């Protein structure tokens, strides 16, 4: 409709606003958004801003949310009938949002973010409305940012190399830093460090940051697999990809000769997670066996997955110890 402003909707998160937000929304306009989450998930909506001119029963301007699956509705909302809480947790994977205006004089309009139940922390990062501090006093933390924050009103100071002033809009700064793509949103990991005297402006990822003076703290965004790693790996988002292994090595391997006299080598390379058939196995009777995986470069490891070999032999490891090395010599 003609009352729709900035809108970016994805299956997992998104952001929407009325036309001209945060300026006064126009007269006699309407907009309808339809949100749909993946099957098996539900929608969580965060009201970043609902500033519609007050009227009896919100007749002049209103926001109404309808759940087509359950046949329920929320609202209408306006300035004298605001949502009871900034966060609406639904039990539905679909939602229709209706915005209407008649003649009015004032009001910024509507700003709303959403995420699915897969990312419950995402809607707490309401685009343009929340800074990183003081709500998050931890030195290192991880949050989920909804898609669509790039074009929402709000200032950022700094750049990816030096960090961002702690008064910057968090998710918009994450897009500027390249930690997430605005079209998708996503999990970001930050550390809070000592502030600096001057934050230089920069143009990055379609955004201009501002030049600003010192602040007590600054924010550093950490990219997965990047050279700078946060000091709190337990707060990193769950791993989503299997790391590539440059080479395998092992203390020994089993050279099997089956009942038909055929050779089969249970070499170290067979330890790759996606390998079909038999796996790696140490030489029978060997003690203190070890398997070495060279990741090729410094990587961030958030979990370890093992699997046994069920082909003819039910082999698996019951316990192991993990060591790491920078040079392959000192562990």
Automatic annotation (TrEMBL):
Chain ranges of the LCCL domain: 143-219
Record-level GO cellular component terms: plasma membrane
Pfam family, one: LCCL
Recorded topology in the membrane: Single-pass type I membrane protein
PROSITE patterns linked: CUB, FA58C_1, FA58C_3, LCCL
Domain CUB: 4-117
InterPro entries in alphabetical order: CUB_dom, FA58C, Galactose-bd-like_sf, LCCL, LCCL_sf, Neuropilin_MCO_CoagFactor, Sperma_CUB_dom_sf
Keyword Membrane among record annotations: yes
Disulfide bonds: 4-31
Main location: membrane
Domain F5/8 type C as annotated: residue spans: 231-331
Tree of life domain: Eukaryota
Keyword field contains Transferase: no
GO molecular function, one term: signaling receptor activity
Protein keywords: Disulfide bond, Membrane, Phosphoprotein, Transmembrane, Transmembrane helix
Protein's cellular compartments: Membrane
Protein name according to UniProt: DCBD1 protein
Phylogenetic placement of the source organism: Eukaryota, Metazoa, Chordata, Craniata, Vertebrata
Gene name as annotated: Dcbld1_1
């Amino acid at each position: 409709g003609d009352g729709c402003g900035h809108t970016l909707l994805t299956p997992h998160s998104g952001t929407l606003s009325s036309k001209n937000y945060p300026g006064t929304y126009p007269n006699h306009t309407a907009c309808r958004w339809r949100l749909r989450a993946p099957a098996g998930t539900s929608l969580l909506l965060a009201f970043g801003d609902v500033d519609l001119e007050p009227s009896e029963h919100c007749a002049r301007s209103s926001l109404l949310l309808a759940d087509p699956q359950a046949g329920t509705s929320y609202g209408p909302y306006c300035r004298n009938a605001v949502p009871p809480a900034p966060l609406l947790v639904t039990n539905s994977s679909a939602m229709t949002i209706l915005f209407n205006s008649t003649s009015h004089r004032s009001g910024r309009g509507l700003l709303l973010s959403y995420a699915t139940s897969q990312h419950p922390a995402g809607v707490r990062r309401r685009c343009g409305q929340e800074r990183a501090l003081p709500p998050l006093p931890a030195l290192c933390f991880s949050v989920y940012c909804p898609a669509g924050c790039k074009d929402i009103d709000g200032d950022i100071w700094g750049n990816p190399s030096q960090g961002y002033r702690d008064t910057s809009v968090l998710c918009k700064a994450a897009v500027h830093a390249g930690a997430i793509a605005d079209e998708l949103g996503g999990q970001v990991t930050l550390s809070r460090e000592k502030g600096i005297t001057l934050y230089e402006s920069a143009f990055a990822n379609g955004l201009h940051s501002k030049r600003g003076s010192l602040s007590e703290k600054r924010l550093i965004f950490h990219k997965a697999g990047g050279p700078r790693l946060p000091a709190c790996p337990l707060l990193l988002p769950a791993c989503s990809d299997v790391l590539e292994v440059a080479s395998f090595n092992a203390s020994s391997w089993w050279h099997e000769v089956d009942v038909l006299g055929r050779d089969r080598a249970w070499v170290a390379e067979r330890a790759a997670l996606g390998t079909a058939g038999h796996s790696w196995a140490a030489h029978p009777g060997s003690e203190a066996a070890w398997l070495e995986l060279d990741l090729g470069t410094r990587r961030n490891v958030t979990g370890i997955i093992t699997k046994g070999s069920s082909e003819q032999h039910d082999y698996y490891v019951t316990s192991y110890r993990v060591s790491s090395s920078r040079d392959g010599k000192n562990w």
